[in-house]
Amino acid sequence: MPLENRDADHGIRRIAADIVIIGAGLSGLVAAATAYAAGKTVAVLDQEPEASVGGQAHWSFGGLFMVNTPEQRRLGVKDSAGLAMSDWLASASFDRSEDRAAREWAEAYVHFASGEKRAWLRSLGVGIFPLVQWAERGGYGPQGHGNTVPRFHVTWGTGPAIVEPFLAKVLEGVAAGKVSLHFRHRALSLTTTAGRVTGVSGEVLEPSTAVRGQASGRVAVGSFEATADAVVVTTGGIGGNHATVRQQWPGNSAPDYMLSGVPASVDGEFLSAAISAGGAVVNGDRMWHYPEGIHNYDPVWPNHGIRILPGPSSLWLDAEGRQLPAPLFPGFDSLGALRHIVRTGHGYSWFVLNRTIALKELALSGSEQNPDLTGKDVRLLASRLRPTSDTPIQRFLDKGIDFLQASSPSELASRMNHLAGSSLINAAELESLIHARDGQVASGLGKDPQLSAIRAARRFATDKLMRVAPPHRLMDPTHGPLIAIRLSVLTRKSLGGLTTDLRSRVLDKEGRAIPGLYAAGEAAGFGGGGIHGYRALEGTFLGGCLFTGRAAGRDAAASV
Questions:
Q1: SS3 of 266, please?
Q2: Is the pTM of this model over 0.85?
């Protein structure tokens, strides 16, 4: 059984279990639930208060990448494992010797996503919203980045519904005396005995009343030592640690100002301990940050940003008012748009749209920004089809500092310049661009590739119903007022991490498994030190935590 006592001579808190898991996020909970179900004793450590159990997954939109599902088929989507694998490899662009393990994970994950994933989740009581979404549409041709078909399945209940069954299993283990949870235990180093990882040591932090996501203190009031036959590292990524993000940013070209899409506790600091134990961390320069971040008007953590999930109709302009080139339309290529914007020398950009497009096409990422889906409220969900004055987007229109409204392009340009503290937006050029775009709409056909993409999107039932507005003139007063939204770079995910084999065992630089040491979730690059390569197809982060966490729990349990 897991036990905890205090050494009378040294005041050290001692913990013992078959398996110790560092991190109580989704991958940690999945690993713990799996190992407990296999009959093992488990101790879970986390530096945050109990309020933050579930980690980033709790805050997520609950998107899951799945292939050839009943939901897709009912919408007329023709998908297959082969097509998904082709899309994955085209997007990942694996080109390094360190990518061997990641590619193996990618192949295994696509097989999982096209096979047992949906049935397994349904057996745990996880439901799927029937309208599949189309993320990362690409636009670079048949062998380029992007999802050929919609694959983004939203969990009914969003992120909390993904966490729920695994947390419930862990709490069952707690009640049975087989699992122990140790919050405010900050792991600092791994213990190795005769070449095998046999435990972890660290600090016991002072109690904290911080609510979920709030920054908690780091004052130590004691120390602990935990012993086990296997240790699983599930400590997450680096998105809350902007110093590390800047250090790892390719070309040292990170913007001067960035929002945080994750709490400050997502600091990546324990990876150094895994490196000291021999683990190989690779692909640190591969990260998945978003260019569509907005300031949360009701922040929970420092510099709290929210990502806009856009439909394709907004004009996307850089800080100087120039339209981003095709195919960098909203929702098509997150990394491509990010790279383009950063190269301009400015860390922000703009969406220009109108009220009709805003209410029809803009969604917000996160469980707290989608109360209908999170609360499984069908009546509230129906309001998405008939936008009212009380929606998350409307609240940002009313309260968000990044949202501007105006009756004319010149007035909008003036307000954009005032917000940015510059004179970069030329009112005449903005008006000319809007009128040219409206002329393309009025033609009924046109040469604008963005309008072609909009019309193509509306051939898909979900987009036509709830994600893409019919093409219309931005200046049509019945669809007004005009709106501009300032978009900042938003930190989110690490794509690299500890190299692992398909059993989630951590590998050293020579590719050998380190006895007793496992890693899962973002700490492992969602598998193999970077399952996504350079680009993600979306809906693959939660799924990566599920897949790698289960593999780690299974093999760790079998090894002890």
A1: coil
A2: yes
